[in-house]
Amino acid sequence: MTTTIIKTTTRLLAPLILVFGSYIILHGHLTPGGGFQGGAVFASGLILLIVANVRDKVQKLFEKTPLTQLESLGALGFLGIGLLGLMSYTFLKNAIANSGFLFGGTTPQGINPGYLNTGGTLSYLNIFVGTKVLAGLTSIVLIFFLILRRERDEW
Amino acid sequence: MIEHLPALMVALPLFGAFIAPLFKKHYKGVSIWAIFITGISVVLSLLLMKEVVTNGIIMYVFGADKPTLVLPSGYAVPIRIMFEVDAMGAFMAISATLMSFVGAIYSYSHVKKDTGLEKYYALLMLLEAGILGMVLTGDLFNLFVFLEIAGIAGSALVGFRNYRGEASEAGIKYLMVSSVASLMVLFAVGIFYGQYGNLNLAYIAKNVSFNMVDMIALGLLFASFAMKCGAVPMHYWVPDAYTEVPAGINPPLLVATYASLYALFRVSFTLFANVVIDLARVGWIMSILGVLTMFIGVTMALIQKDVKRLMSYHAISQTGYMLLGVGVGLTVLHDPSKLAEFGRDAMAGGVFHIINHIIYKSLLLMTAGALFYVTGTRNLNEMGGLARKMPITTISFMVGAAAISGLPPFNGFASKFLIYETSYRLNPLLTVFAMVTSVLTLASFVKVFASAFLGPPLEKFENKREVPKPMIVAMLILAALCILFGLFPNVVLDKLVYPAVDALINFAQYHSWGGLA
Amino acid sequence: MSFTLTTPSGFWNPLFWVIFLALFGLIAYLIYSRGNPSYKKESDQVRPYLSGNIEPAKEKVQVKAGDIYWGFIEALKGYYKILEAIHTGDIRDYILWYLGVGAIVTFILIGGV
Amino acid sequence: MNGSLFVNFPFIVVALLLALGFYTIGFKRNLIKVIIGVEILEGAVNMFIVALGYVKGGYAPIYTQAPQEAVGKMVLPTPQALTLTSIVIGVAVTALMLAFAVNIYRHYGTLDVTRVRRLRG
Prior knowledge:
The structure holds 4 protein chains of 4 kinds.
Chain A: H1 4-26, H2 35-51, H3 55-64, H4 67-84, H5 121-154
Helix pairs in contact in A: 1-2, 2-5, 4-5
Chain C: E1 5-7, E2 10-12, H1 14-33, H2 58-61, H3 70-75, H4 77-86, H5 91-109
Antiparallel strand pairs in C: 1-2
Chain D: H1 2-27, H2 31-52, H3 78-108
Helix pairs in contact in D: 1-2, 2-3
């Protein structure tokens, strides 16, 4: 599956997909989408890179990438943000909104052009969920890729 | 902090589960971490039970101080995710945390030789989180989510020994069954949402009417949860899954099965209890399903040669007792005189049997795991004369076998006693089946005992020794619980079981706030 | 705190159980003490007498698990034949049984019967 | 008359998909096809919930650059949230099922479900 056409297309498309994924994650509290969707888009960019390359290179690259740790980090971050809510009311309470902290800008009422610096914990949750999803989906495909490519080489 | 207990109950195992992969190859560290986390969660669940018994139902809303959204027009609906913990939920939470703890201790040495243990423990704690979420939630969709979490984590654990083809086979069977059941639960949830525009259990229960679509939803929920808890004739996945799973996971997996039973009770009592006309019918279906389950389960167990498979069929058969006990109670729920006369005790028997069965069946499956650990086989035909080599395992097995057969003074006796007496009042035929089942249970455990432990010492097991200490500790904890629960059943009944049963019977209390607090 | 469990038509108390245990233990001991005292464990008395034949190896005379309750299973052969026929182990049958039971339960619940 | 058919059309599709899904699970011999059957069921259920959530004349509840007439007509996005959650779970289920299928193929050398049954009886 590593023809020139695919390689060239990947080289052009993958950066765009990755940027688009990050955009969806970061704008999760303003536009449709969010952590999972953005993470899935981001992961699909990475997956494109995986399947368009030969097995050995992919393996060498991803041996150093801490996918498992990223996944744990995402989940722990989510939990941590949830526990942050215990400070004010209950678990997952939006404690950062309107606090002036990063992403804690004043949320306007009604129709607005969309301000990135709002959303409070929602933005953080989106980022953590996005991290977890991109790491999780990538490692799923990576493992299948490594297993099946190896067996095809053996056959 | 005490008011945040319901959230912490789920957050703690999740935290443990996400930390666990970071241990990488430090298998000793991760197993101690798992024991630590599950141990704390036992303490939390006991606190939760105390809180529920003293202060009544706990409502915990996520992300806000109130569950309700009041629209500008004055229309108020509960839209937030919330946990609603009553005594029944707390009771199940205690079972779940206790069994995860025991399973973690047992796993310390049982899976020592396997690799990928950081994932094993992560999944163990994820399974615990799934069960806890299922039993604590007050939201139908949340129930589905946690059902799936428990199902995925459970089936991944069933297929944990990926060097065995059978493990993968059992894993995909369990996963297929649980995902189809969960999807149908989601379908039923969709039906409720379409009709009542809400997902809150209490709100739906208050507004549920008795139309055909509701009854279809009830049928879907009933069949799905019955399949997930292993009622005949949808029990085929149970022996497969229980046999192939590492023995340390058996206790939490059992609780996961009974969390589905809990959901079944929750649906039939809390959600549909207001529908007077059909409830006796549901109760009868449950009782008959129970009788079928116990009888077919035990007769299949008699002919098994694989020791864990034999015990899994007994797990099916014991589920029948719970269905029978609670089904009898459900049949007479709207008849106050009969309810006071025997209905409440029948349900107490059924609910008490849940925790009893979880304890002694975990004990038995652990002894089976110990046999496998020592002999390397599960085939009863190849065992024999192990009593001298493994005295503590033998004693644990005897305690478990006596308990499952309902011999006094072990814990199975008290709950079976209650079920016999009360089902006799509804229909003597039910009792006859229950007793025959009990006799056959004893018979098949005599078979295991005679063929694995008794007999002349075999040469091939010459230099086998007793299992390592953590496994012994785990088995002895459960054996001690068996005897304690058996000697003083009234204490357990008063402190744990009757509050749970009353929580089920007084369903009006559960939705008294009607989602509009 | 009392330890008596009262059920609709009976009760359970661990103290009574201990008393009865002691009682029956006593009876068992009485029967045991009337046994033959000349039995010796370390002598040939413990060896089975097989009409003069040599005793076979222990592993050969052990009763295997599959042979226990042979008669019972033989008597219920027809029943077990049906049971084994429905326990196919085929993943598709698991779902089909679920469908069937779900359909029947729903049918009963919506008032078909 | 014409309108009611149009409104009910998604639900007819849902029923068809449910039947198709159960047929695929129940009568196909290839394990991969059985897994596809579960996916079809999931699609049916998701579609059911999304179809329930459709409100005529409603707007998506996004305030960012919403049109002026959307104010007061925004819908509660619960069904969409449910579907999304169910899709996420579905991804995990599919991945795990396929992983099991790979492993089964390695050990049994086949994906025929009538032969993948060492555990029975």
